[in-house]
Amino acid sequence: MNVLIVDDSIDKLSDVSKVLIETNLTLNIGTAEDIQGAMIFLEENTVDLLILDQYLPVRKGKDEKILKDGGFQLLSEISRKAKKINTPKYVIGLSQYVDECPGFSDIWCLIEYSPTHTKWYNPLIKILNHISEANVNATSDNLTKQLLPTLFVEGLTDVDLLNFVLNHHFIDVKDKFIIASQKNAGANWVAQQLVIWGHQLSRNSERQLVKAIGLFDSDEAGIKAKNDAIKKLNSSNQQEAVKIGTIQAKHSTNIIEFYKIGLQIEIEIESLLPIKLLNYADEQGWLEYRNPLFIDLPKNWDQMTENLSDYLDRIKFPKDSRVYLKKIKISKKEQFVKFVLQQADESIEVLDNLKTLLSELINTLITKEGS
Predict the structure, then answer these.
(1) What is the CATH number for 31?
(2) Is the domain of 311 the same as that of 176?
(3) pLDDT, tens digit, for every residue of 13-59?
(4) 88, 120, 138 - which closes a domain
(5) Would the pLDDT of 165 be above 70?
(6) Pairwise CA distance, residues 87 & 3, whole Å
């Protein structure tokens, strides 16, 4: 049975997924944080049960407004695009604010959720059992994939880069785990997958726990999402099955030079790539300055009296390395990664930093017993 949970609260997602998994039904649980993410998911996947919050943003982001009727708007959008997407077979609204949602749906029920009581458990379980008894077919391909160790990453371009490295450097293990993401995934999506994985605690044929790793960028969103996931993974089994990975300065000889002199920039997978590729991207207009530039301001830089360029000149920081003060624009990531992979086809060495990173992740993800 394929279930999609649309909610931007990892606490609520953890509660709901735990109840779903404890039914012992065969479930494939997907997640989305906003209306846009849910619609993208429904374009690409069949869903037997949609569980959605009433308070949802159109698109998750720092300045995104949460809509009080977001659940209703999502249902309206599903109805409007019914011929272009996979319409869910069943829908449940699950909200702490039932009294504020009188117009949720003429068809589907709205259940009152609370983190402090369990009254919402039984209605949810009854609907799940009804769907199961109605012989709704699950998507076997997705369920089979979840039995493999999985590396969850923040975006599809990350998947493309890491799969390229996997297929060129780690052929002997490339069929023993999968690298997973979805469009507009982000750090919160990775954290959600880890929480669900931690509740499922799947085991292989030898009864060993199947592992998952979440790979987070070293930025504000990544740090917060990582910490949110860790708080929900308390048992020894969960901590054995679910691991946290972070892209760090040590994964790039260029970035580590920044950190050595106190210039701590946020780090994402693209910042592990060589200077020459980023310089080309800058020439194409694919880069933008980081905001903020640094995680913490350098102690010997007074922004009020000295601009950044003069400061970097004063400390004699190499001009060619300053391209790492910029990052790839979200709208240009696909174009940039396509270019990178073309370069890697001619010289795989441009992805050496990613090779080092992936090697660490594989060593954690695949145990000797499972290799």
Answers:
(1) 3.40.50.2300
(2) yes
(3) 999 999 999 998 888 999 999 999 999 999 999 999 999 998 888 88
(4) 138
(5) yes
(6) 12
**Nearest-angstrom CA–CA distance, 112 and 114:** 7
- The dihedral over CA atoms of 113, 126, 44, 185, expressed in degrees to the nearest 10, equals 30
**HEC per residue, 289-309:** ECCCCCCCCCCCCCCCCCCHH
Q: Where are the alpha helices (DSSP H) in the chain?
A: 10-22, 35-44, 70-80, 121-133, 140-145, 156-169, 186-200, 220-232, 236-241, 253-260, 275-283, 308-314, 333-346, 352-365
Domain ranges, residue 370: 146-371
pLDDT at residue 206, rounded to an integer:
85
Per-residue pLDDT at 144: 43
Q: Which of 94, 5, 8, 92 is nearest to 57 (CA)?
A: 8
- Please, are residues 2 and 28 in contact by the beta-carbon 8 Å criterion? yes
For the record, the structure tokens of 314 come out as: 């004063």
Query: What is the reported pTM?
Result: 0.89
Domain count across the chain: 2
Cα 121 from Cα 125, distance rounded (Å): 6
Q: Residue 313's pLDDT is what?
A: 93
With beta carbons less than 8 A apart as the criterion, state whether 196 and 17 touch: yes
Q: Average pLDDT in the 318-324 region? A: 93
**Single-letter residue type at 39:** M
User: pLDDT higher for 216 or 301?
Assistant: 216
Q: Are strands 49-52 and 109-112 parallel, antiparallel or unpaired?
A: unpaired
Domain boundary among 138, 163, 184: 138
Same domain, 231 and 335: yes
State residue 145's pLDDT score.
47
Which residues are CB-contacts of 214 (< 8 A; sequence separation ≥ 6)?
152, 190, 191, 193, 194, 226, 229, 242, 243, 244, 245
CB 239 within 8 A of CB 233: yes
* Two tokens, residue 151: 């590396």
Helix and strand tally (H, E) in the chain?
Answer: 14, 13
